[in-house]
Sequence to fold (757 residues):
Amino acid sequence: MEFAFTEEQEELRAVVRAFLAQRSRSEQVRAGFAPATWAQLIEQMELTAVALPEAVGGAGASFVEAGVALEETGRALLPAPYLPTVVGATALASAPLLQERVVGGAVVALALDAREPARPVAVARAGAGDAPAAPTHLLDGTVPHVLDGALAQLLVVSATVDGEPALFAVEADAAGVTIAAQPTLDGTRGQATVTLDGAPALRLSAPGEGAAALERLAGVLWVALAIEAVGSADRCLAMTVDYLRERVQFGRVLGTFQALRHRCADLAAELEGARATAHYAAWAVDGAPAELAVVAPLANAVCTRMLLHVAGETIQLHGGIGFTWEHDAHLYFKRAKASELLYGTPLELRRLAARRSGILEPAVQAAA
Amino acid sequence: MDLRHRPEDEAFRAEVRAWLHDHLVGDYAALDGAGGPGREHEGIEVRRAWERELGAAGWIGLGWPAEHGGRGATLLQQVIFHEEYAAAGAPGRVNHMGEQLLAPTLLAFGTDAQKARFLPGILSGEELWCQGYSEPDAGSDLAAVRTHARLRDGQWRIDGQKVWTSLAEHADWSFVVTRCEPGSERHKGLAYLLVPMRQPGIEIRPIVQITGTAEFSEVFFQDAVTDGDLCVGAPGEGWKVALGTLAFERGVATLGQQIGFERELRRVIATAHETGAIEEPALRDRLADAWVELRVLRYNALRTLAGDPTAAAGSASVAKLLWGPWHRRLGELAVDVRGVAATVAAGAPYDLSEDQALFLYTRADTIYAGSDEIQRNIIAERMLGLPRG
Fold:
């Protein structure tokens, strides 16, 4: 495998980081989604196009590039629907017209089961409405916890059809689609409840391949949240270290107290291990897809738990100021808990990864 | 570094595997991976013979340049060798101090004569080395060494004491950090000397550790001698040379070490099936966690080896801080899956099972080669840039 980033990938990281340092500052994060910023992400940096094929106007790169961008949007807590869009785009291979719209800036949201994303949430029946492209089915179901759902133009929906799971695309403004925004604990990322009542849908996965397609989409989603968490944690630790370098108590800079230094070192070690895991997982999306079933839930469990730890310590190590609404620490702490609880908790995903690896089975022992 | 395996790397892997399959037989196979940290006292004579076998086949000094008798293997090939070695359950190496620590130091800082004198003995597996760094008052704080050396009549004469020297009674030579300028302090005035272990001026006393076995010793120097030209680097510059050695202490062997860890974890899981502990949800989760965290160790090692520029300074300390406590938790699991049965020793007076020994020995993993606390200091200072107190 190729573990080190290429020069081009490092350049992408630098460009995105510099842009977000201007356009995703604290007050902008708190103000929420800014269409002008989203437009710049699309037009200037073509960020939603990175992992899409050149034939539809994409950059033809891999999910590693999307991962580089996600690490940066996580660092800046960018209040924009980048994560669901770039993840959802990976499910559109059979619909080049929809891929083209994503390249052009269409927002995608994922109407998946928020506890077990590989389990279908809606039910499909044959029938055709009037959109998109050539609709094939009608969907029924209620899907809570759809990230950035209120901003979506396109929905990628999991549904059961003829007894098997499948993926569908639904136009957010189609008849039979209701999207109700919900207030969230994590104020930096919106959620909506999507209700589908005979909503016209285009089947994305071929018959017999739906379970694998849904499983892969869940894997990419787990990886995306993992790598975003790494970016967020990196920012938290940097913020904390900066503060400890400046804050003086008892006539000393706080960063000289070994008790505090050692806690920061423990956070750094946990972060570095998680970062390596997330980078490996982002590479595996295209580089080793067969490993994704294990490495994706594993990376998500490791990275979201790590972020909660780092963000919690960020509050503690800042003392009273870290507990205020004014300071950014709580934004990261809330993001951390939401990322942990969505799409399977760390405990559930560790169990899932271990089960899939077979490590705990007696048969594996006999073979070893 | 590109970690994708090319055909020549797969051919190299096949070569290593085939050689191990053909040669890891009889007494060598019977050792079942004995040796290494925690088990350095086991099967010494067989392991010495095994080291010579490795040397004769050219498996020692894989990464050294060909002009010094090495094979010039790539980093990836060295990783492959260590992985296959651990996967085969080959014995713990008796001369990793010589091959992994001293030899790179000589290649970087040694004279031509020193290289010509010592590298062949390491390559053949004939001459074993031990490390003379720690002292009773210079453990984590290496710059506090007091053992001193004076050059008289073309010979260094050494007095003082070293401690925590593994394999001291089996080693032919030691690389010793000494103070060569009387009255010098801290990092100044040190000399890095190569000292023969078998001489009247050296006395070795084994240290019985919490496992009841002894793999470390105290080494007393009383007018011990070595030739005047066996100082690596200039006298007074020993700190630089010693730090160079420490930098070699971790590296390509890491991935092999992790394969050894996975063997241990699989053994603990197999035991959990035998005892029924695997059905206990809390223990089952701890076993799953151990596996998850072992994968994290692996990804972290791959990233470090790949030379990822985002892997900042201090990555060796991060790796130590991740694997030391991991191994300690595995030691706790090893006895927990046996439950109350683990409270009885395998034999009198204090003959411990492998699981009991793992439980006890792994307490050392967070102390030696820089304690966890030292690693945290290094990370805080070099990686995070926090000011010193």
